[in-house]
Amino acid sequence: MPGPMRGAAKKPKNSKNAFLALIRALMPWRKLLILSLSFAALSTTLSIVGPSLLGRITTNATNSLMETGAIDWEPITRIAGMLVVLYVFSAICSYMESFLLAKVVNRFTKQMRETILAKFSRLPISYFDQHKFGDVLSYMTNDLETVAGNLQGSLNEIIVNVVTLLGVLIMMVIISPALSAIVLVSVPFSLFCVGKITRRAQKYFRKQQNTLGKLNAVIEESYSGQLVIKTNSHEEESLAEFSDVNDSLFTAGWKAEFLSRMAFPATALFTNAAYVLICIIGGMEAIAGRITIGNIQAFIEYVNDFNRPITQIAQIGSIIQQTLAAAERIFEFLDEPEEESDVLKPAEIKRIQGEVEFREVDFSYDKEKPTIVNFSAKIQPGQKVALVGPTGAGKTTMVNLLMRFYDPDKGEILIDDVLTREMRRGDVRKLFGMVLQDTWLFSGTIEENLKYGRPGATHEEIVRACKRAHIHHFIQSLPKGYKTKIDEDSDNISAGEKQLLTIARAMIADAPMMILDEATSNVDTRTEELIQDAFDKLTKGRTSFVIAHRLSTIRNADLILVMKEGAIIEQGSHEELVESGGFYAELYQSQFK
Q1: pLDDT 10s digits, 165-177
Q2: Distances in Å between the alpha carbon of 458 and those of 170, 445, 478, 479, 507?
Q3: What is the DSSP string of 386-440?
Q4: What is the pTM of this model?
Q5: Which end of the chain has the least Cβ crowding within 10 Å, N or C?
């Protein structure tokens, strides 16, 4: 199995670089590819000899008729037998070429899918924050399928047409150098026109692929956001946005196709003019006895065969441009900056206690606008810490820094006196169980979803966690209980029930520390109380971080950090902060007025 193709491209910015990157990506299968193209060349070479043998049959027939008044079938039968053998071997070579090329292209596509998916896991969270899901998905679907489909359809065509062009030219020169010169005069004019047209079509093919990615993003957003769209009566605006992108795709697509199709009439104009001259001069040569009738027949067939690859090469040119436009997007994606590598000798926490310390942490997504400013706090093992504050205060950002989705621009974060920056990212993240506001369930059974964070959990452990999360009774009411198939879009499960499932999943994972980001935002007040009771039991003796807008849910927190504009402005227990009459007291009172 070929190794990963990371680094196959060095930030391709044009078709030449995309072409070179594509060649490098195909190198693991170069032997099969060369063998396939060799069969294509051999098949074409064998078929090129055919018209010459047919011409000899015609010459033998006409000469014997003129000399004896009857056809001499013996040489004709011998030549016909040679033709049969020739065409059979040509067909076998063509089959082998198709078989090997299909194997190469499908292996290439499989490896590229794996490479793209592996790239997803190596990208920083910031990449997904800045790029639309539909456009990213387009790399693995539309772009890769375009490259794979066009490779299989055009690689052998390129070889076949080039070999045909050269082989037919040699055969024409052998038959008549004078007539061949007429054909060759038309070639530079044809190639000049094709080059002009191809260059103009190239930019539209590139725009077509980019716009297709945008269209996927719009469709994905429209599908996943239908509830919000309908709630806000935003259907017309959503359709208008889709129409704008769809119109751009239509314009780029028809211009690319129109220009690529123009190559055929442009080449036909010159080749047909040459064809007329060949017929006139060839007839005069035959009358003068300088060329046989069979050779004229063969030459005319060769002229047709010579014109065909020129036209097809022109058409393949547009396909190549489309392929390179898609390949350029793929390799640009594969060359995106990845998460910094973990340190060579990472620090480890042998036995987790749960002490967490932030030392003068600064961070910003946009370097001109700070998000976290001089954040310092020390959390003792087993403490339940609440982060509160208005929207945009930096609460979720602190969780992102704690989990090493991002690293601070300045300052340090320590767990049990070990710098998180000196630990493996995976080791840091294994220390925390997370329950987020946005529930995420994959397609599978309820039990498979619940075991996601701890595959080895027993059924008894799962049931026990679900009872503590107050979701067991609901699961039992489903047709197949814990074996019921669900996904994120399951209509028979409410938002609150999905949230309870993710809470049970965190309980089963049994991580040393917990992070709850608006974990009770989608449940009713009664269920919220039940969940709070379960979480109190779950977080007992564990360091936990709770982000909540409902301040009623964090009244029993050991420490409340009040954030505003990325900095801690108050800290203390609920009672202390209410009594102080500061910013927290205002927030709390505003929720109960």
Answers
A1: 787 778 778 877 8
A2: 76, 15, 20, 21, 13
A3: EEE-STTSSHHHHHHHHTTSS--SEEEEEETTEEGGGS-HHHHHHTEEEE-SS--
A4: 0.63
A5: C
